[in-house]
Every structure is written in C-alpha cells, then in structure tokens.
Specification:
Shape: elongated
Helix content: over 70%
Number of domains: 1
Largest sheet: none
Amino acid sequence: MSITADKLNRALAALREIQVKAGELPEICEHDAHVIAALAGTVEIILGEEIKNAA
C-alpha cells in the first residue's frame, strides 16, 4: 500500500498542530509536553524523508 504525498502532507500538518497543542499544556504537564513535541518532531522528520523519497 502506497501513501500519497497529499496524505503525507496532511499528516505533517497534523503533527505540527500536535506540537502547537503540546506547547499549550499547563505548566504542570511540562514534561509530557516535551515528550509529545519530541515524538511529533521525530515522526515529522521521518515523514519528511518519505515525502522526499516519494517525489
């Protein structure tokens, strides 16, 4: 099954939104926010590479 570049771009947009929302978590959740943002960033890098490979 192949993922289209459009689907990858939508996934990247969703990951960016997750990163923004993680930054909006209350201070008591700061550690969780960093973990969420880091995971989203890592997946964003991987998907970015997939987009380059699909092009």
